[in-house]
Design brief:
Number of helices: 0
Helix content: under 10%
Structural class: mainly beta
Largest sheet: 6 strands, mixed
Strand content: over 45%
Length: about 120
C-alpha cells in the first residue's frame, strides 16, 4: 500500500506562489499516473492536475491552466504542484492520489490559504 504525505501549503497573498509536494512511501509510484485534488470547506473534492506515469503528459482543470504546473521526480518518489498567480478561490486543502481512480488511502492534505 502507498502512504501519501502532502506538504508545502501555507498562507499566501493573492498573486503569490507555492510549491506543493506529495511524497509516497510504502511502494514506488513510478508506474502510476498521479493527480492533485483539492477540497474546500463545504465543497466536494475536485480535480486539479494529473501527470502520467512517464511524465510525458499532464492534465489540468480549466481554471488551473497556465497557473499550475505538475511534475514528478520518481527518484524521490515525489510529485510536485507549482502554483502561481494564486487567487482567493484557490483556498483549499490539497491532496494527491493515484489518478483517475484514487485507489490509495488519502493523506492528511496540505492547506492553502490565499488571502491578503
Amino acid at each position: 500500500q502507498v502512504q501519501l504525505v502532502e506538504s508545502g501549503g501555507g498562507l499566501v497573498q493573492p498573486g503569490g506562489s507555492l510549491r506543493l509536494s506529495c511524497a509516497a512511501s510504502g511502494r514506488t509510484f513510478s508506474s502510476y499516473d498521479v493527480g492533485w485534488f483539492r477540497q474546500a470547506p463545504g465543497k466536494e473534492r475536485e480535480f486539479v492536475a494529473a501527470i502520467t506515469w512517464s511524465g510525458e503528459n499532464t492534465y489540468y482543470a480549466d481554471s488551473m491552466w497556465g497557473r499550475f504546473t505538475i511534475s514528478r521526480d520518481d527518484a524521490k518518489n515525489t510529485v510536485y504542484l507549482q502554483m502561481n498567480s494564486l487567487k482567493p478561490e484557490d483556498t483549499s486543502v490539497y491532496y494527491c492520489n493515484q489518478w483517475p481512480s484514487m485507489i490509495w488511502a488519502w493523506g492528511q492534505g496540505t492547506p492553502v490559504t490565499v488571502s491578503s
